[in-house]
Amino acid sequence: MSLQSSANEPAIELVGIDKKFGAVHANKNINLSVGKGSIHGIIGENGAGKSTLMSILYGFYHADEGEIRIQGKPVTIRDSQAAIAAGIGMVHQHFMLVENFTVLENVMLGAEGGQLLAKGVAGARKELKRLEKDYGLEVDPDAVIEELPVGNQQRVEILKALYRGAEILILDEPTGVLTPAEADHLFRILQVLRDQGKTIILITHKLREIMAITDTVSVMRRGEMVATRKTAETTVAELAELMVGRRVLLRVEKGDANPGPVLLSVKNLTVKDGRGVTMVDDVSFDVRAGEIVGIAGVAGNGQSELLEALAGIRKPVSGEILIDGKPVESADPALLRQLALAHIPEDRHHMGLVLKFEEYENSILGYHHDPRYGRGAMLDLDAVRKSAEEQIEKYDIRPPNPRLKTANFSGGNQQKIVVAREIERDPKMLLIGQPTRGVDIGAIEFIHRRIIEMRDAGKAVLLVSVELDEIRSLSDRILVMFAGKVVGEKSADADEQTLGLMMAGIAA
Amino acid sequence: MEYFDTFVSILGSAIRLSIPLLFTALAGLFSERAGIFDIGLEGKMLASAFAAACVAYWTGNAWAGLGAGILVAIIFSLLHGFASITNRGNQIVSGVALNFIAAGLTIVLGTAWFNQGGRTGQVPPEGRFSGIVLPGVEMMRDVPIIGPLYANVISGNNILTYIAFLMVPLSWWVLYRTRFGLRLRAVGENPGAVDTAGISVVWLRYRALIVTGFLAGFAGTYLSIAQSAAFINNMSAGKGYIALAALIFAKWKPVPVMFACLLFGFLDAFANFMQGKSLPMIGEVPVQIFQALPYILTCVLLAGVIGVARPPKAGGVPYTKER
C-alpha cells in the first residue's frame, strides 16, 4: 500500500522500508510518497523512528528491506555521496558546518570543482549570487560561520544543499534554535523553495509548525507510519492523538496561583561566562511561594548562566541572591540544597545524570550525604535501591529497573529520573531548566502536572525554557530575557507575538 | 667582530638544530589539523632514524636511507591510524604505545644486527647527506656582515635543510589552496560536515597521517644520516615533544611553526654555547634552564598569556556517525 500524499507526481517514494537494530525494530514497513513541489511534515515522538528513516534516506544507514524511488526511479543510497547525487539535501538539527570557515568554504566543501580551490571559487560565488536572487537566501559569502547569527547559519546549510543541486530538501527539527521571527523567515524561504518546484520534508515535534507550513503530514509511532493526512483536513488534537496513541491534554489544567511570601530574591545580579563575556546583566526579580515564574528567551541570552548562578554552579560577578531574605554568601550547590533549593538542570546529560551509572545511583546524585542513605562512610545500598524503586513507581519510570544503565532509558524517562530525585526531596524552591527538552508528549504532560503540583503545594518555582508554549502554559508570571537583561515582565496571558518581539529585543 | 663570529656560529647551529623540529612539527601539523593528536611523533622520528641509518649503512646510498626512513615513519603512522581511526581507540594511548615500540625495537634490532649496544654501524660518507656549498660563497666572503652569514648560515647545509624550509610554503599551499587542504582542515574541526558532504572521514584522515609519516621520515633521516653518521640509542631525545610544543606555540599554522622551531632551535644552540660559561653578575647558569625554555614558553602560551591557542575542535575525538 502506498499513501499518495499529493496530487502531483511523487518526487520521492518509500516502499516497504524496514530497519532493525538488534532487537529494536526502528522502522516497520514504512510506505511514504511525497508529491513534487510540496511541503510534507513528518511528526512523531522521540524514538518513533523519524531520525532512522531520514538517516536511511541520507545514506547514513541502509534499510534491511524496501525500496527508495526518486522521480519514479528506484535508487540505492549507499552513502551521503549517493544521496547528494540523487538530489537529496539535508539540513541537520545540529548544523554540519565548520565554524571557523567562511560561508563560501563551507558551501564548497565536498563540491570544490577541482584539486585546486582557486578554480572553483569564482563559479561558487556566481552560483551563490544566483541562489540568493532566486530564493531570497541572503548571506555574505565571506562571513565566518561562528560570527553569524544562528538563523543565518541555517541558511548556509540550506545553501549547501541547493548548491549541490538538491531537489528534495529534508529539514530535521529546524526551528529548535530559532527565534519566532527567524522561524517565520525560514518558513517564508521554504514556501519560496516549494513554489519554485522543490520538494521539502520537514521533521518536527512541534504540531503548530506542521499546521502552519505543511501541505501534507505523516505521523510516526513506534517505528510505524500510522497515518498520512492533508494538513487542511486534520487538527492538532487528531495529530497529537495519532502520535501518542491515546488522547492527550495539550493545555495544562491549572487553577489560579496563590502567591505567598518571597522565597527567592535576586538583586542586581551580574554573571560572566567562561570567556569573560557578561551573560547576565544587572538582573533583579523575586519568586514567591506558590507561583511559577517563567523566563522566556531565545537560547543563549543568559538564561543558562542565570540558572547556574542561582544553583551555585557559577559565581556571580556582582549582585545578591537572597533565600528567605538571607543573602547566600558563597556559590555552593551543596549549601543551597541544604537551604531546600532543588535544581533540575537544563542539560540532563551534562549535569543532571551520569549516563554510565545505573538508575539507582543517579537517583541519589547530590544527596549522598542524606543520613537516610548512609551508614557512616558507607552507602546503605538497600536503602538507596528501595528509594529508587519508590521513585520509579511514583513517576512511572520505564522500564522499572533500578539496575539498568541510565543511558538505556529513553529521554523522557531519563528526565523523569532527574525530576523524581529533585522533587522527592520536598524542596521549598525549585529551579527548572528546559524540563521537557527531548521528552515525548506523554512524559511532557506528566512532568508539567508535577510542576503545577509543586506550585500548588506552596513552592517557589523558577522555570527556564526556550519553548514559548511551555512558558506560557505553566507560568503565572513571565520574564523575558534578551542579551542578558530582563527586558520585561508579562502576565501569563500575554500573546505570543508580543513575547516573540521581546525575545528578539525589538519591543519591551 | 669576535662577538659577531660567535653569533654567526650560534645561528648556524640553531638552523641545524631546528631542522628536525621543523620536519616533525609540520608532520604533526597535518595530523592534528585533521583531528588526530599525535604524541607519537617522537617514536616516528626515532624509528625512521634507525631505518635510515641501517639502509644507508648497507647500501651506502643516502637517498635509499631517506626512502627507508620515510617508509618506516609512514608504517608507524598507519598503525596509529589503525588504532585510532579504524578502531576508534584513544589517540594519546596509541601514540604513547608507538613511542615505546620505537624505543624498544630500535635497541633490540640494533643490538641484534650490529652488536654495538644499540648503535648502528658507521655510515660511509656517500651514505650521508653532507653540506652543499652554494655558488658565490667565495665571492661574498669578504662582504662584511652578509658575507659570513651567507657562508656559514645560508650556505653549507645539507639538502634536507633546504627541503625543510621549502616544506613550509608547500605545507601552507597544500592546506589553504588545495581541495585536500580544505577537507583536511574541515575534518579536524567538524568531521560531521565532511561526512555529510559525501567525503569519507576515514580515508581523509588516513591520507593526513600518510603525509605526517612522510614528513616525520625526513626528520628521523636528518638525525641519523645528515646530522650524524650513525643511529645512537634514543637519539631523538625528546625532540618529538619539543616539536609538539612548537606546533602548539605556533597555533597550528605552518609559517608560525617555522618561526617557533627556529626559536626553539636557537634556544638549544644557545644552551650548548652557554655550557660551562658564566654570565657577568650572575655566574654560571645551569643549561637545563635553557633546555626547559621551550616547554616554559609553551605553558605560558597555553595559560593564555600570549593569546589563546585554539586547537582543532575535533582533535582527539574518534568519529562516529550520529545516532
Automatic annotation (TrEMBL), chain A:
InterPro entries: AAA+_ATPase, ABC_carbohydrate_import_ATPase, ABC_transporter-like_ATP-bd, ABC_transporter-like_CS, P-loop_NTPase
Subcellular compartments: Cell membrane
GO MF term (any one): ATP binding
Positions of the ABC transporter domain: 12-247, 264-508
Keyword list, A-Z: ATP-binding, Cell membrane, Membrane, Nucleotide-binding, Repeat, Sugar transport, Translocase, Transport
UniProt xrefs under SMART domains: AAA (SM00382)
Lineage: superkingdom: Bacteria
Sequence similarity: Belongs to the ABC transporter superfamily.
Protein name as catalogued: Simple sugar transport system ATP-binding protein
Automatic annotation (TrEMBL), chain B:
Major subcellular location class: membrane
Cellular compartments per GO CC: plasma membrane
GO molecular function: transmembrane transporter activity
Organism domain of life: Bacteria
UniProt cross-references to CDD domains, sorted A to Z: TM_PBP1_transp_TpRbsC_like
Compartments it resides in: Cell membrane
Membrane topology listed for this record: Multi-pass membrane protein
InterPro entries, per database record: ABC_transp_permease
Signal peptide per UniProt: none
Keywords, comma-separated and alphabetical: Cell membrane, Membrane, Sugar transport, Transmembrane, Transmembrane helix, Transport
Record-annotated membrane-spanning stretches: 6-29, 66-85, 92-114, 159-176, 206-225, 287-309
PANTHER family hit by this protein: GUANOSINE ABC TRANSPORTER PERMEASE PROTEIN NUPQ, SUGAR ABC TRANSPORTER INTEGRAL MEMBRANE PROTEIN-RELATED
Protein name per its UniProtKB record: Simple sugar transport system permease protein
